[in-house]
Amino acid sequence: MASYYNDATVIFLNGSFVKAAEAKMDFYSQSLHYGYSVFEGIRSYKTEKGDTKIFKPAEHYERLKNSARAMNLPYAWNTDELIAATYEVLKRNNIRDAYIRPVVYAPANMSFVVNTESFIVIEAWEMAPFLGDKLLRVMTSSFQRPNPKGFKIEAKAAGHYVNSILASQDAKAKGFDEALLTDMNDNIAEGPGANMFFEKDGKLVTPPPGNILPGITRATVFEICKKLGIAVEERLFKADELKNADAAFYCGTAAEVVGWESLDNVKFKKNWNETVSKIVQAAYANLIIEKEFEPPIQAGARRKEIHA
Ligand code: PMP
Predict the structure, then answer these.
(1) What's the gap in Å between 193 CA and the centre of ligand 1?
(2) What sections of 115-238 are H helices per DSSP?
């Protein structure tokens, strides 16, 4: 298993900066027993200019607040204060390229009643930017995403991730790199920890909100596409249509933008290097380090076509 901290590592715990190795949490917490907590996955990068920037921190902390509200967890924190605390965690640990994990968790409570307080921890560890140059072999999972009538699927709640773990472990045990989950009607939904897009004839298609976590990277892909004049459509589709696509990719804070080689061993039609998806990947890689991105001719050509 990976090592996330050492004796010197500092975390933010309920308003104080404390040593990770000395921090305590209640073993009687409702979060531990029932998977009842909410969290975020955020990244910081060393920018092109050399400073450390957290990517879209307000979006992540607002989602944390919304996830807590959706789960009836008290949420007493302010986004600006949490962003400042996160920069302080990075500074105290002397890390720049980091993965940042805030968790809002419940007090000791074995019943199901609403709590009067909750707690927050912010952990961070080093994570180098991911180049996404290896294409993924993806498997359609027999595990479906949680039914939105049984869960608040738009919230990033810890308990939902039991589903992600089962699907991902199953795909890996079967020799694939990652799982792809459907909704209860066999429409493609998302990966265990990432949203997906496919490309057909230079346009991108992605599942609409409803059965997915509406990702911040997904929203960033929309922004990139708008800027580059790449058409994106949100609609439901099934695995058969996806297998006929030119390309596909996962996107998420941890995954960034990562292309797929195949789905259920059916290879995608286009060479990844010739896809608009690859242009989106390059644009994202530049955006996170605040580097200007000059799209290749292909995207420019598409832009003229769309606005003509
Ligand atoms: N779906 C799931 C199930 C996830 O866990 C994640 C990662 N948070 C995503 C999508 C992508 O979300 P984001 O781009 O906000 O990281």
Answers:
(1) 5
(2) 161-173, 216-228
Instruction: Report the half-sphere exposure of 232 (CA within 13 A, side-chain side).
Output: 22
Neighbours of 83 (CB within 10 A): 16
Lowest mean pLDDT among 32-41, 67-76, 126-135: 126-135
Which of 191, 184, 131 has its CA nearest to residue 161?
191
- Enter the tokens of residue 284: 């994202």
Distance from Cα 251 to the centre of ligand 1, integer Å: 8
CA distances from 219 to 111, 126, 197, 199 (A): 37, 25, 12, 17
Residue nearest to atom 7 of ligand 1 (CA): 193
Q: How far apart are CA 123 and CA 12, in angstroms?
A: 7
Does the pTM surpass 0.90? The reply is yes
Q: Best of 213, 220, 223, 251 to mutate for ligand 1, by most ligand atoms within 8 A of CB? A: 213
Report the range of poorest mean pLDDT among 22-31, 49-58, 111-120, 123-132: 123-132
CA of 160 to the centre of ligand 1 (A): 12
Evaluate if residue 200 carries a pLDDT over 80.
Answer: yes
How many Cα atoms sit within 13 Å of 164 on the Cβ side?
A: 16
Specify the ligand 1 atom closest to the Cα of 160. 3
Radius of gyration of the CA atoms of the chain, in A: 20
Measured CA distances, 70 to 74, 101, 139, 229 (Å): 10, 19, 31, 35
Q: Which domains does the chain have, with CATH numbers?
A: 10-125 (3.30.470.10), 136-287 (3.20.10.10)
Nearest protein Cα to ligand 1, atom 5 = 193
Higher pLDDT, 85 or 1: 85
Is residue 33 a contact partner of residue 112, using CB atoms and an 8 Å limit? Answer: no
- State whether residue 240 is helix, strand or coil: helix
DSSP state of 157: B
Q: Which residues are catalytic?
A: 156
